[in-house]
Amino acid sequence: MRWAKISWMLAILGLLGVQYPVLAGESIGSKQSVIPAKLVKTDNAWTILRNGEPYFIKGAGGSRYLQKLAQSGANSVRTWSTDDAQRILDEAHQYGLTVMLGLRMGKERHGFDYSDKEAVAAQKAQIREQVLKYKDHPALLVWGIGNELDLFYTNTNVWYAVEEIAAMIKTLDPHHLVTTVTAGINKEKAALITERVPSIDYLSINIYGGLENLPADLLEIGYQGPYVVTEWGPTGHWEIAKTDWGAPIEQSSTEKAAIYRKRYEQGILAAPKRALGSYAFLWGQKQETTPTWYGVFTEAGKPTEVVDTLSYLWRGQWPTQRAPSISAYTLGGKSATQSLRVKPGQLVSVELSYTTGDKEEVAIQWEILPESTDIKAGGDPERRPKARDIEFVSGHQPGHMQFKVPVQPGPYRLFVYVENAAGKVANANFPFFVEQAME
């Protein structure tokens, strides 16, 4: 009777949205019932209903800093697989977040053959077990079947495999949404998915440059249905300006913050009848071309000014104490677009202009990395280059310094991190090329 009474009380608290701690060794999913989600259409507009209430996804992709994610105004988090799923689901629920739980599928570019019926069947069986394991967790919102299965693919049989899994999930778990995630979208891809994958609730799209045009582009290619942008953020390294030796020129965190806002407002908020929300990329940090390109946190876990912008977009107000901003960054009097080439060991002057908003002191850190040679596709893991020692000359003052470039020829980047007392960071990097010494 005592435990029955406690269970009844916890159920009432759950309905009221009250959070309660999880004991060690226990999962939240075992203590609360399913919270259903479904997609409804009224008057040519789509809406997600979660527990009967309209639910617009304000999310980010990642598995760390979930408390900070909730504090920033988000309501959902996205994963790419079920790795560490129990911990993520439990922690998300603790902080009032839902989860788009990824179901990893084999990719053609990694050698998976979607014409191999036995391999496809075995994969489906594995995913079935994952669905059965997590389908009743109260934090679950949507199943994400695969991620960018269409990137560099040729075998369109993959969409039949996605449909088999989507239809299976609908049978096993009628209480949650189902989607699949594409790398961008075009007319042919949209038509194939519409025809071959009718069991998904909506289309999920990863898109960076061009997000601001997505609502119009979808209509132009004939897709009028609902969508969620499951990855978006800075301009991708494959679509941005390059130096004359081919190094992509990364935006500063200040430039990224501005483009995050523009793309969210024009690519998501501008299509209220079709856009169901989004997941910004990446709520964390990773090495992809550089260690700073896509993460909104530093490697030390410090939030950049992009986090402030996301919080504004989700909550409608700026944080009380904001991150620094970078307004100008030059080496040898040149901007990054001017393709700075230097001689081995040459002395170079650096000018950095930044603002803090309240004239507080900041800490500035510099780092030189060789240009990465471990470039992959589709977010596959990459190795971080090893930092080189910096030889400062005649000391260095905040925003002004001189250093000697490495003597070994090749492409490099000079990174700068400006951190305020709140532990928030603005960052930027500048590519330069050390030429071969003349004999």
Structure keywords:
TIM Barrel, Immunoglobulin-like, 2 domains, 4-stranded antiparallel beta sheet, 9 helices, 19 strands, 27% strand
Can you walk through the features of this model?
The chain is α/β, with parallel strands linked by helices. It has two domains: 2-315, Alpha-Beta Barrel (TIM Barrel); 326-434, Immunoglobulins (Immunoglobulin-like). It is 24% helix and 27% strand. It is built from nine helices and 19 strands. It has helices at residues 2-15, 66-71, 85-94, 117-134, 158-172, 187-196, 214-220, 253-267, 305-315; strands at residues 37-42, 45-50, 53-54, 57-61, 76-78, 98-103, 140-147, 177-183, 202-206, 227-231, 275-280, 325-331, 340-342, 347-355, 363-370, 391-397, 400-404, 410-419, 425-434. The strands form four sheets. An eight-stranded parallel barrel has the order 4-5-6-7-8-9-10-11. Strands 12-14-17-16 form a four-stranded antiparallel sheet, with no helix packed on it. Helix 4 runs parallel beside helix 5 (158-172) and helix 8 packs parallel to helix 9 (305-315). The radius of gyration is 24 Å and the shape is globular. The termini are far apart.
Put the structure in a nutshell:
The protein is an alpha/beta fold and 439 residues long. Helices cover 24% and strands 27% of the residues.
